[in-house]
Specification:
single chain; about 375 residues; alpha/beta; Rossmann fold; seven-stranded parallel β-sheet; three-stranded antiparallel β-sheet; 12 helices; about 30% helix; globular; binds NADP nicotinamide-adenine-dinucleotide phosphate
Length: about 375
């Protein structure tokens, strides 16, 4: 190789030069271009001006990359020049992630949670491992405990053995060993087992996530004219934008002060489900028939749907979680500690909900919606936009 690099000191920084005279490459290096990992003492060295085609020096593995939050996290990391290892199960589920980074920067690896060698291959070159694996319902192969506790602990253990510097585990707000929800109980168990396996793991507890592909606003808006609400349910939830949570997770890559901490990431305001339905109706400009049903009937409905339909629908535990108000712990950190100001549901929901509007007032400004509705009633002009 005739193009190696000279490293010369000047003032606080230094200059990197390519010895090949045709190269013309000269780059200023500063002390902040190097990060020494506290746990492993490994150096992380940045190259380039920053951004997609630079090298952040980090290699991150994102388990659960094919999910809703995963795609936003992979996009954020790859955009910073981090090489991202994306363990996947289904060939078609990971294709969209490849284009998030420069050529060769997003590396898919096929894996199975029960295959230890595959997990080792996915983490052994990494500096940070994110575990986003989760499921809203039990499956015939994986129980809540397996997906949220047993296997995350196994990934954390393997990561520690392989010399990974940082481990970030995504749990859920309200994770509690005494919760009435099996999901929250398994998340609490997962936090405990992960911390045992990787003591300075960062635990992240997001509230209900909303965003374009969510299972929250999309589910509430796609009701086919009906709004089913649980009777006497005054639980208050704080939905949070998926992009804000991904931003916080990406920040944890470089921020050593987040190691060993627990973060609770929730939105700016609390809402009951009735308030959220009101809001969804206001944005989609639809008037649905609202039906209040007892919790026992809602649970029966969810159980029946789950046993009769071959695809995933609302699970009985989803219903249980809808009746639990968000609880915050005093010793957990929040968005404020990361200097992130979360976006409000009111400001961001239109990007998710607009597609539920009728075409006649799809992109009409708020003051033109009534006129558009009147036009629609008279069936004069089908489109008001040109
Ligand atoms: N969405 C929310 O409102 C919310 C709220 C609080 C906490 N969380 C937590 O945040 C994390 C990310 O949520 P999300 O909404 O992005 O979840 P998601 O869309 O359901 O994605 C879950 C991910 O986990 C993977 N996964 C599930 N079971 C697996 C198994 N048995 N083996 C291997 N991979 C498995 C899925 O892979 P496949 O594509 O191969 O199935 C997918 O990549 C989860 O831990 C979730 O519990 C989510």
């Amino acid at each position: 190789m005739n193009s190696f690099i000279h490293f010369s000191r000047r003032n606080f920084g230094s200059v990197l030069k390519c010895s090949n005279s045709d190269c013309g490459f000269i780059q200023r290096r500063n002390a902040h271009d190097i990060l020494i990992r506290e746990r492993t003492g490994k150096p992380i060295i940045k190259y380039g001006p920053g951004g997609r085609s630079s090298v952040s020096g980090h290699i991150a593995t994102v388990f659960g990359c094919t999910g809703f939050l995963g795609r936003y996290l992979v996009a954020k990391l790859a955009k910073q020049g981090t090489q991202v290892i994306i363990p996947f199960r289904d060939e078609d589920e990971k294709r969209h992630l490849k284009v998030n980074g420069d050529l060769g920067q997003v590396v898919p690896i096929e894996f199975d949670l029960r295959n230890t060698d595959a997990i080792v291959s996915a983490v052994r070159h990494s500096d940070i491992v994110y575990n986003l694996i989760g499921r809203d319902y039990d499956t015939k192969n994986f129980s809540y405990e397996a997906v949220h506790a047993e296997y995350p602990a196994k990934i954390a253990e393997i990561s520690a053995e392989q010399g990974v510097s940082r481990f970030v585990h995504v749990s859920a707000l309200n994770a509690d060993a005494r919760s009435t929800s099996k999901f929250y109980r398994s998340k609490a168990l997962g936090e405990r087992l992960v911390r045992n396996a990787f003591p300075d793991a960062t635990i992240v507890r997001p509230a209900y996530l909303f965003g374009p592909e969510d299972r929250f606003l999309n589910r509430l808006a796609a009701t086919g004219g009906w709004e089913l609400l649980i009777r006497h349910n005054d639980a208050v939830v704080h939905p949070v934008n998926v992009i804000d949570v991904a931003k916080a997770l990406a920040m944890m890559q470089t921020s050593e002060s987040t190691a060993g901490e627990t973060y609770e990431l929730y939105g700016t305001k609390g809402y009951t489900f009735t308030e959220i339905y009101d809001f969804v109706g206001e944005v989609t400009k639809k008037t649905n028939t609202r039906v209040y049903i007892p919790k026992s009937i809602a649970l029966l409905y969810a159980r029946l749907q789950n046993s009769l339909l071959p695809w995933a629908t609302i699970s009985p535990d989803d219903i249980e979680r809808m009746t639990i108000s968000d609880k915050f712990s005093e010793d957990a950190k929040t968005f404020g500690d990361l200097d992130i100001e979360p976006v409000s549901l009111e400001a961001a929901a239109i990007t998710v909900l607009r597609r539920f509007r009728y075409n006649v007032y799809f992109d009409a400004p708020p003051d033109e919606v009534e006129a558009a509705k009147a036009t629609l009633k008279k069936r004069k002009v089908p489109f008001i936009h040109t």
